[in-house]
């Protein structure tokens, strides 16, 4: 690896099911399919191409454009428009290689600028949604001796969808912001 200048880094395995963006995309596709197939659920595979077309050409608020435009750098044309535009493009086409090369470089630069702008738009959208979420959070003050619910983080490891991860009301002990807490159950057992 040193010969080719590759540095070895450890990372987690690629698992698209846990990616938030994949989940959002799959949910959007599922919603489109549910609305188009209606009662006949067996025909979902026939409608998948249309659902993907609709999903790719729909405006996405977080990025500020359609995903089609983000990939190809231009607006998507419906199939009926392609038939007429193809003739127009052939009629007005420029076959000079230097001019065509310059035009392609300009288009690639515009595509990079569009992707950078989409990235900035997604950051702005995330900050906006975080601000809205944080404004709805109520500040709570807990005192020593107050009864609180204890979250059992060890249950996250096991698949226990129906099991509660909260342990009943325990009195809040003396605590420090930097030290781990130890809770005492009402039976006297330390957690």
Automatic annotation (TrEMBL):
Gene3D superfamilies: Ribonuclease H-like superfamily/Ribonuclease H. InterPro entries: RNaseH-like_sf, RNaseH_sf. One of its GO terms (molecular function) is nucleic acid binding. Keywords: Nucleotidyltransferase, RNA-directed DNA polymerase, Transferase. This is Reverse transcriptase domain-containing protein. It comes from Tanacetum cinerariifolium.
């Amino acid at each position: 690896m040193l010969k080719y200048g590759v540095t070895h880094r450890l990372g987690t395995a690629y698992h698209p099911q846990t990616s938030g963006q994949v989940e959002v995309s799959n949910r959007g596709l599922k919603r489109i399919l549910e609305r188009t197939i209606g009662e006949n659920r067996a025909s979902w595979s026939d409608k998948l191409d249309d659902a993907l077309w609709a999903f790719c050409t729909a405006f996405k608020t977080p990025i500020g454009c359609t995903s089609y435009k983000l990939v190809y750098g231009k607006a998507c044309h419906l199939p009926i428009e392609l038939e007429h535009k193809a003739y127009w493009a052939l009629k007005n086409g420029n076959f000079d290689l230097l001019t065509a090369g310059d035009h392609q470089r300009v288009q690639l630069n515009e595509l990079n600028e569009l992707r950078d702008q989409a990235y900035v738009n997604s950051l702005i959208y995330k900050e906006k949604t975080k601000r809205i979420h944080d404004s709805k959070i109520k500040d709570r003050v807990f005192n020593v001796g107050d009864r609180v619910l204890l979250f059992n983080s060890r249950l996250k490891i096991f698949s226990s969808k129906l099991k509660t991860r909260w342990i009943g009301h325990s009195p809040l002990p003396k605590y420090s912001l930097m030290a781990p807490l130890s809770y005492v159950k009402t039976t006297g057992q330390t957690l």
